[in-house]
C-alpha cells in the first residue's frame, strides 16, 4: 500500500468513528444534523476515478447506516453526492490542472470552494431527507432540514479547512 492509501484509510476510519460516535447524535432544533464525512469526499484529489468516488461514498454511507440503524438512506445519499462531485468540481476548475489537484481554499479560493462544497452537501441532504421521511408532502420540513443540515455541515467543513495542513 502506498502512503497516500494509508493516509486515506486512516482519515476514513477517523471520520467514520467521529460521525458515528459524535455527529450522528447531534440534532440541532430537531432539524439540523451534521455529516462530517462529506469533508473526506470533498477533499479527494481530482483524478480520483468515478468508481472510486462512488465506492468511498457508499462505504461512508453504509458504515453510518449500520451504526445509526438507518436502512440505507445514508448510503444512497453519500453515493449520489460522490457521483455528482466530479461534475460539480469540473464547473469550478479547468482541464489544465495537475492530476494531484486537491479541491480546497488554496486552490479554489474561499468563494469557489464554498460554492462547490455547498452544492455537494446540498445534494447529499436533498437525497437523504426525502428518503428518511419517505414522503414529499412535508416539503417545508424537508427544506428546513436540508438548509439547516447543510449550514451545520458547512460550519464543520470551514473549520476543517482552517485546520487543514495544506491550506
Outline the structure in words.
- The mean pLDDT is 87.
- The longest helix has 29 residues, at 105-133.
- The chain contains six helices and no strands.
- It is globular.
- Helix 1 packs parallel to helix 3, helix 4 runs antiparallel to helix 5 (105-133) and helix 5 runs antiparallel to helix 6.
- The chain has a single domain, classed as Arp2/3 complex 21 kDa subunit ARPC3 (Orthogonal Bundle).
- The two termini are 26 Å apart.
- With 167 residues, the chain is mostly helical.
- What is the strand content? under 5%
The SSE order reads HHHHHH
Q: What structural class is derived from the secondary structure elements?
A: mainly alpha
Q: Which second-level CATH architecture applies?
A: Orthogonal Bundle
Strand segment count: 0
Count, helices: 6
Number of domains: 1
CATH class group: Mainly Alpha
**How much is the radius of gyration in Å?**
15 Å
Helix content: 55-70%
Sheet of most strands: none
Low-pLDDT residue spans: none
Task: Write down the CATH topology.
Answer: Arp2/3 complex 21 kDa subunit ARPC3
Spatial gap, N to C terminus: 26 Å
Query: What average pLDDT do the residues reach?
Result: 87
Principal-axes shape call: globular
Amino acid at each position: 500500500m502506498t502512503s497516500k492509501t494509508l493516509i486515506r484509510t486512516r482519515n476514513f476510519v477517523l471520520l467514520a468513528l467521529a460521525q458515528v460516535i459524535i455527529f450522528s447524535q447531534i440534532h440541532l432544533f430537531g432539524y439540523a444534523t451534521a455529516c462530517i464525512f462529506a469533508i473526506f469526499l470533498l477533499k479527494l484529489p481530482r483524478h480520483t476515478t468515478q468508481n472510486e468516488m462512488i465506492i468511498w461514498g457508499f462505504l461512508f454511507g453504509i458504515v453510518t447506516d449500520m451504526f445509526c440503524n438507518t436502512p440505507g438512506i445514508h448510503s444512497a445519499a453519500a453515493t449520489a453526492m460522490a457521483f455528482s462531485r466530479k461534475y460539480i468540481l469540473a464547473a469550478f476548475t479547468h482541464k489544465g490542472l495537475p492530476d494531484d489537484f486537491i479541491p480546497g481554499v488554496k486552490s479554489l479560493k474561499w468563494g469557489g470552494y464554498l460554492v462547490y462544497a455547498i452544492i455537494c452537501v446540498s445534494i447529499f441532504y436533498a437525497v437523504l431527507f426525502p428518503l428518511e421521511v419517505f414522503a414529499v408532502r412535508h416539503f417545508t420540513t424537508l427544506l428546513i432540514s436540508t438548509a439547516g443540515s447543510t449550514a451545520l455541515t458547512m460550519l464543520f467543513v470551514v473549520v476543517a479547512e482552517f485546520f487543514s495542513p495544506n491550506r
